[in-house]
Amino acid sequence: MTDAPAPTPAQDPADGADDVFEQKAVRLAKRERLIAERESAAGGAFPVSVPVTTTISALRAEYGDLEAGAETGVVAGIAGRVVFSRNTGKLCFASLQSGDGSRIQAMISLANVGEESLARWKELVDLGDHVFVHGEVISSRRGELSIMADGWQIASKAILPLPNVYGELSEEGRVRSRFLDLIVRDQARTTVRARAAVNASLRGTFTAHDFVEVETPMLQVQHGGAAARPFITHSNAFDAELYLRIAPELYLKRAVVGGIDRVFEINRNFRNEGADSTHSPEFAMLEAYQAYTDYHGIADLTQELIQKAAVAVSGSTTVTWADGTEYDFGGEWARISMYDSLSEATGRRFAPGDPVDELVSFAEEQGVEVPPQATHGKLIEELWEYFVKGDLVSPTFVMDFPVDTSPLVREHRSIPGVVEKWDLYVRGFELATGYSELVDPVIQRERFVEQAKLAARGDVEAMRVDEEFLRALEHGMPPTGGMGMGIDRLLMALTGLGIRETILFPLVK
């Protein structure tokens, strides 16, 4: 009993269209042969099922420490994708891979399967095929966990070749063909499972705090809940213009009005804006609202949510990013004032009452871009991002924002001109935001009217007056703290990857 020599790598489809076309033609011919042999071949090229008795990962867990050359006497039926293959005379070797990346060696020998079956293996099995193998669980002479087959069957015939399992797909190739990325790259599979672990952790933390998970509309007659440009569509049934939601906020607050004091949602948002390393037009969002707390209480909750998610992914609040860098989410996170930190960074005192023209002059002097439809708040935030954001390394809550950029937030209880809002920065980007929610319907209407004026002057991100939401507030909403966090960005913070890597199937041109 010997192990396979170094296997031949799979063909990379990018190596040449002609070669791929030729391989496809050969594989299609094999498919036809398998179909013609359907009765004798027990199902042809694509049988409905195969008699699997266990999984590759389960065998590795139970028998992974077998001594070299050991025989177990245990017979199993397993299936996996052929990712390596070597045919050598009377003994053929294949590495079978399961969906989680676990692998086991299949050994097809003349002595065990017979001449006809061995010949059919050599003639019909290609890299990428899903194969069922039945036989004894053993360890080869080199200590490789293996199945010494007494029978085998093609479970699904691959018509196109796999990418090169020794190389890497380009970033563009990984994004456009995520199914191939998942086959050949461990990190891709790990990221999918990390995302699932994060979502389970978030839900577990909310459940422990008596939150209720709900679902709110994605198609809305009026967009709101954030300053963003919406996607617009048309409903034939209602003959009405509808918007893909940019945030679930206004519906979740209706739920709080209705008596669901602790509510959250994890679902999709859509914003018709640019795409870059931290932004995607379609993204997953978490929003949560808790009655009878404020932005300090919701900051505490957010820190707990993220720290427990880190533990779910890495077993510790210190995570290791894809490039090997360690990042610590532990301890109590700093909370700094936007105005104070900007003043400290520039050596110039900034205050909520600073006139717009003075801020414009300062921004121009410093080479900071002045946003269109500039307001005091927009200028302060632009200056803060220019002077302060890049120096934030550890997780940091940036507190107390200008009132005119935060139309859904309660005014600060002791500082005029600002609101009780924080943004959480991790790795230099905004990960989450939290408010003491504005629950006074009269002030909320005034804020909406101001936003409508901005929209009339050409601000495409400004909110509109939402009469239905105002009607809900007029029925009484308790004091509430709320937060929102991008799930994709949370994965970025925990893994060190870009947003297109954390989304399984991102939108690309």
From TrEMBL:
GO cellular component, one term: cytosol
Reactions mediated catalytically: tRNA(Lys) + L-lysine + ATP = L-lysyl-tRNA(Lys) + AMP + diphosphate
Membrane-crossing residue ranges in chain numbering: none
Residues given in the record as Mg(2+) 2 binding sites: E430
GO MF annotation: an example: tRNA binding
Main subcellular location of this protein, as a coarse class: cytoplasm
Required co-factors: Mg(2+)
Pfam families referenced in this protein's UniProt entry, alphabetically: tRNA-synt_2, tRNA_anti-codon
Sequence ranges assigned to domain Aminoacyl-transfer RNA synthetases class-II family profile in this UniProt record: 195-506
Classification via PANTHER family: LYSINE--TRNA LIGASE, CHLOROPLASTIC_MITOCHONDRIAL, LYSYL-TRNA SYNTHETASE
Family the entry assigns: Belongs to the class-II aminoacyl-tRNA synthetase family.
Subunit structure: Homodimer.
Record-given protein name: Lysine--tRNA ligase
